[in-house]
Amino acid sequence: MRTRGVSLVEIAVTLAVLALLLMAAAPSMSEWLRSARLRNQGESVLNGIQAARNEAVRRNVEVTFWLVSNNTATAMNNNCALSSTGNGWVVSRNDPAGFCGTPPSSTVAPMIVTTRILGDGGTGAGVRGLQADGSTAATSITFDGLGRAVQRATAAENLRRIAIAYTAAQAGDRPLQVDVDASGGIRLCDTTVTDAGDPRACPAVINAVQNNNEGDD
């Protein structure tokens, strides 16, 4: 019995069908990748805020999460400034502006705990630091030794929400938020979920103020 081979016509038909399947899947894959980048960016911010809170509780001192702009997208250095739309974050005891490249230390100013360039979490996704009203810019949030968010007199120091989205938005994007309430509760939520009963939904109002004692330890 002679074995029959595969003809050129059959190969061409198979390749054509495969090409059509790939074309059909391309939009879904693109949306998935964009959503994954937003999720990576959001989780990076979430981890930074959690690190600040955990360190404050562990050491029983005030520790701050700062959004900063850095002049490179590859490594944190001392050419940095506080920015509500920065490309990185710093967790430290004191203002890290101009000192973001300082190695972590519990004694050397600004007493950095950890830092992160946001670009490595989700290329193309940007952040906006906001106060509890969801519109006024803010750059930092401080936690006390009980893990609570400290209410500051300076508005920019009362960061309560970080919006994560693409500057060039596309249909199908799922912008995220990281919200922090006065008790120190931190959550990452999906702004496209409208059902208030869905655990992925973002709260309409953030409980931003409670009776905290001001002042540095």
Explain what you see:
With 217 residues, the protein is α+β, with helices and mostly antiparallel strands. It has a single domain (45-217), classed as minor pseudopilin epsh fold (3-Layer(bab) Sandwich). Helix content is 24%, strand content 22%. It has one helix and nine strands; from the N terminus they run H-E-E-E-E-E-E-E-E-E. The strands form two sheets. Strands 1, 2, 3, 4 and 6 form a five-stranded antiparallel β-sheet that branches. Strand 8 (176-180) and strand 9 (186-190) form a beta hairpin. It is elongated and about 80 Å long. The N and C termini lie far apart (90 Å). Residues 211-217 have low confidence and may be disordered.
Can you tell me the number of structural domains? 1
Query: Helical percent range?
Result: 10-25%
CATH topology: minor pseudopilin epsh fold
Number of strands: 9
Class by SSE composition:
alpha+beta
CATH class: Alpha Beta
| Element order: H for helix, E for strand | HEEEEEEEEE
Strand content: 15-25%
Q: Give the overall silhouette.
A: elongated
CATH superfamily: minor pseudopilin epsh domain
> Average pLDDT across residues?
86
Q: Report the total helices.
A: 1
Distance between the termini: 90 Å
CATH architecture descriptor: 3-Layer(bab) Sandwich
List low-pLDDT spans. Answer: 211-217
Q: Could you describe the largest sheet, including whether it forms a barrel?
A: 5 strands, antiparallel
C-alpha-based Rg, rounded:
23 Å
